[in-house]
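Run NAD(P)H-dependent oxidoreductase through structure prediction, thanks.
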Amino acid sequence: MKIVALAGSIVGSKTKTAMLKTVEILKQKFPKHEVTLLDLADYKLEFSDGRNYFEYEGDTKYVTETIMSADAIIIGTPTFQASIPATLKNIFDLLPVNAFRDKVVSVVVTAGTAKHYLMVEQQLKPILAYMKAQIVPTYVFIEENDFLRKEIINDDILFRLDRLVDDTVQTYHAVDLIRKAKEEEYGF
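Sure, done. The structure for NAD(P)H-dependent oxidoreductase is below.
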């Protein structure tokens, strides 16, 4: 199973901190799975101009092809102006409309205040559903006061990240069983 952990911003440290912890948990609990961290701050991405994702070159091609080859994606995003950052929206724009078909997607959100928790429900989940993702219903919402010196200090958040990792892998296995059963119906 290929899992991509996507840190969807090029600024700040909280989302990257959360995604590094998520990757650590993934590798500890599921060492046989291939886990890739894509921190958008590490790449120089082109803005989407309507081409197919495989027509881009360099970092843009690498990032989009890595996402497209994943079985599961854990998206980490900060909340900027009560919305997702433009860098994450650009990723969605670079990919085809059915990019997440047969993929499980879960979410980790960082925000300065609890007032932004609805961003996931009202903005991010509709985009993921439109792109045909199998969305893990629960997500981890991490506030600024849950961090200290680039570390997560809230044990409840660590527990919820652990549970999100389990839910992501279990959801993938359930979706995979359903997909295989449907394929067997065709008999060829």
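The domain at 2-185 is CATH 3.40.50.360 (Rossmann fold).
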